């Protein structure tokens, strides 16, 4: 019997089940990847918004990392909500032991609620980005990180190029919040080249967890040994399929969750 590939998510819990650790573990399982998890924060959250956050102290985040990395053959890692600059700094100290590192710099929930205490920008840019195989900010996160508005595809191309300066091997500026487009366009910077990933736009309010799912699907595919470019294309396709299958659901009064695979 061969072992399954193992991936790790370092992220926050979403009590509503749509984003965070819950979305990541579902996405790993959908790729037939065994999921491990280091929890950085609890959120009291549903499809409408975030009611409260209780961050886990960095020492206990470290204890979880030691437990997982000291025992299991983690082949790829995704970071989501890290909640505090201290936890970003702590995770950065583990970076040499974190293969295939996908950094989703979660700062704000789709509801608009903040998911990070303060001083996020410098901690992410200076400490974690240099170790990442890929970083995956959405438009709003790219704006916060760069301290300027990022609202259209041209801005996203410039943002991806400017964020690449911080040392990540690849940057994806996700366009799920671009207005007025018939396509969901993500801008990818890789080795000095910029390209776009596109998929047909799905008209649905059930989009809570798209960012987490995209980053987790990328990490799952890296854990399975796919090259990064293939992993990103496959993750984009996975999110599109998940969104299209749950477009008509009505779970909760706010932004509902996505469906999940396997889809093959
Ligand atoms: N309505 C949609 N139709 C098709 N693809 C979408 C849609 N919304 C988001 N996506 C895709 O989902 C992925 C995540 O992008 P998005 O910009 O939504 O991330 P995010 O803002 O981090 O997520 P969230 O909105 O859940 O916080 C991207 O590949 C994006 O293009
Ligand atoms: C615990 C937690 N982590 C992350 C997100 C953002 O998720 P997404 O950008 O996928 O909506 C969230 N709402 N809650």
Automatic annotation (TrEMBL):
The lineage of its organism: Bacteria, Bacillati, Actinomycetota, Actinomycetes, Micromonosporales. Its EC number is 2.7.1.49, 2.7.4.7. This is Bifunctional hydroxymethylpyrimidine kinase/phosphomethylpyrimidine kinase. Keywords: Kinase, Thiamine biosynthesis, Transferase. Residues 14-258 form the Pyridoxamine kinase/Phosphomethylpyrimidine kinase domain. It is an enzyme of class 2 (transferase). CDD domains: HMPP_kinase. InterPro entries: HMP/HMP-P_kinase_dom, PM/HMP-P_kinase-1, Ribokinase-like.
């Amino acid at each position: 019997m061969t072992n399954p590939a193992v991936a790790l998510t370092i992220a926050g819990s979403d009590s509503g089940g749509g984003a965070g650790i819950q979305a990541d573990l579902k996405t790993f399982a959908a790729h037939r990847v065994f999921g491990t998890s280091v929890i950085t924060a609890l959120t009291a959250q549903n499809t409408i918004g975030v009611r409260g956050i209780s961050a886990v102290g960095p020492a206990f985040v470290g204890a979880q990392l030691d437990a997982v990395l000291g025992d299991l053959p983690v082949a790829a890692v995704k970071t989501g909500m890290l909640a505090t600059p201290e936890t970003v700094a702590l995770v950065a100290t583990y970076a040499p032991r974190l293969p295939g590192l996908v950094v989703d710099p979660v700062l704000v929930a789709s509801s608009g609620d903040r998911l990070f205490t303060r001083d996020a920008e410098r901690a992410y840019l200076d400490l974690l980005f240099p170790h990442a195989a890929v970083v995956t900010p959405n438009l709003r996160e790219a704006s916060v990180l760069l301290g300027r508005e990022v609202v259209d595809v041209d801005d996203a191309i410039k943002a991806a190029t400017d964020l690449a300066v911080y040392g990540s091997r690849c940057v994806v500026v996700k366009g799920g919040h671009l207005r007025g487009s018939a396509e969901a366009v993500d801008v990818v910077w890789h080795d000095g080249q910029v390209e776009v990933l596109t998929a047909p736009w799905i008209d649905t309010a059930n989009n809570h967890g798209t960012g987490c799912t995209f980053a987790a699907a990328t990490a799952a595919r890296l854990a399975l040994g796919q090259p990064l470019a293939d992993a990103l294309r496959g993750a984009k396709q996975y999110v599109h399929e998940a969104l299209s299958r749950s477009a008509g659901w009505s779970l909760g009064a706010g932004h509902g969750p996505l469906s999940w695979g396997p889809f093959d």
